[in-house]
Amino acid sequence: MNKITTLIITFLLMGVVLTAGCVDEQSSSDATSNSDSDTIIVGVSIVPQQQFVEKIAGDNVEVVVMVPPGASPHSYEPTPSQLTALSDAKMYAMVGSGITVEDTMIGKLEDLNSDMLIVDCSEGITLVEMVAHSHDEEEHDHEAEGEEHDHEEEEGLDPHIWTSPDNVEIMVENIYQGLVEVDPDNQETYLANKNAYLAELAELDEQIQTTLEGKEGTSFMVYHPAWGYFAKHYGITQVPVEIEGKEPSVQDMQNLIDEAKEKGIKVIFVQSGFSTVSAEAIASEIDGEVVELDPLAKDYIDNLSKVAEAFKEGLA
Ligand SMILES: [Zn+2]
Prior knowledge:
alpha/beta; Rossmann fold; four-stranded parallel beta sheet; 8 strands; about 10% strand; globular; binds zinc ion
């Protein structure tokens, strides 16, 4: 077994997602490749980025994803062998918006592989503040507790930039620029693929606008507030249940129930990897239901269409 094959088997055993590309040794006819394989390894942090890279580069790349499906990008720590797998990578695409997994990893990656191009997908995207919880002023005790709590938004900025298609258009552009830099021979192909995917994203955006027509100004409740950019883009309001990365207190719960009743909220959204206990409790108090959304699904366009339908049903 060659080195790459060994690494890939290691990854599969660890449950880390890799592209389903061909990993057989390819002919070394490409004289421009200076690595021990023609396949370009590209690292990414989260699963949706895997799709963005593959839409542009197709089978030319093997994508290594750091945060496996079901894990939280706010708490996951890459294993040493995951980092080792990036020692031959040509490029790493950071989300760049302050997700914890990247804060702890990027320095290590630079030490491991100084030749690797690091792309910041958030370049050109304006980060917005996390929606302040509407009961902050009544909950001073939380602030004190929150100080020592190691949560995602150190500067209070919302890291979930990829939940809005207009941001993804910028992320895709940044990834494209990086791919052209590490693989200039394929620029034409990458440009055509990138433009085709951007057209799909623009179509998705229009489709969601249509789906959510008439819902502007309405509110939704969600356990982990991953949909801030989506909400902002489509003119709806996100009400988080989780407070500073933690379960709400009994008082918070009562406030949330009151708010849900007041706003006519009937659905509490949750996501895999996070507790559903408080969402279930609120739902039972308001005679509503808990609906799961996935902000980290691989098939971005298909997933966001489904998400929009769920919002259409769930928004008051
Ligand atoms: Zn999150």
